[in-house]
From TrEMBL:
Keywords: Antimicrobial, Bacteriolytic enzyme, Disulfide bond, Glycosidase, Hydrolase, Signal. GO terms for molecular function: lysozyme activity. The lineage of its organism: Eukaryota, Metazoa, Chordata, Craniata, Vertebrata. Residues 1-18 form the signal peptide. PROSITE patterns: GLYCOSYL_HYDROL_F22_1, GLYCOSYL_HYDROL_F22_2. This is lysozyme. Pfam families: Lys (PF00062). CDD domains: LYZ_C (cd16897).
Length: 148
């Protein structure tokens, strides 16, 4: 009993928080999945974007009262256009996925959907945090020390 309670204390917060990527680990996964140079964005652009959108947390969600949509996961992909969460009015689900699939430790679906997002004319500028925190900045610190 005591042991179970202790195990619960140790493991439940990990479940609630999901996987939080380490900066260089994320950079390597993004590169391995073909994001370096994709639509002329570098791995550093994506790491910077993930830093300021989710702080590298795969379980991050944020509700937008304006259109009643929610942003999901490490890239904070929005349920109005890109995924289906079953509760967003007038949702398009362009990526053809459940928004829950954007909250898993394995970010391969989030990466596939992010590639779809940047195929639109606004490209990576679709992400407000990228425009505010990464655009036009020296992003070398985001991949500094990473074995890429
Ligand atoms: C992540 O999932 C994809 C398929 O959805 C799979 O091909 C890949 O091997 C998985 N990556 C890891 C690290 O488990
Ligand atoms: C970006 O910053 C790094 C480290 O501070 C520096 O070495 C590099 O020269 C800078 N690049 C540009 C284009 O300013």
């Amino acid at each position: 009993m005591k042991v179970l309670i202790l195990l619960g204390l140790v493991f439940l917060p990990m479940l609630a928080h999901g996987k939080v990527y380490e900066r260089c680990e994320l950079a390597r996964v993004l590169k391995r999945n073909g994001l370096h140079g994709f639509r002329s964005n570098s791995v550093a652009d994506w790491v910077c974007l993930a830093k300021w959108e989710s702080d590298y947390n795969t379980k991050a969600t944020n509700y937008n009262p304006g259109d009643q949509s929610t942003d999901y996961g490490i890239f904070q992909i929005n349920s109005h256009y890109w995924c289906n969460d079953g509760k967003t009015p007038d949702a398009k689900n362009v990526c053809g996925i459940s928004c829950r699939d954007l909250l898993t430790d394995n970010i391969s679906k989030a990466i596939t959907c992010a590639k779809r997002v940047v195929r639109d004319p606004s490209g990576i500028r679709a992400w407000v945090a990228w425009r505010n925190r990464c655009q036009g900045k020296n992003l070398s610190s985001y991949i500094q020390g990473c074995r890429l």
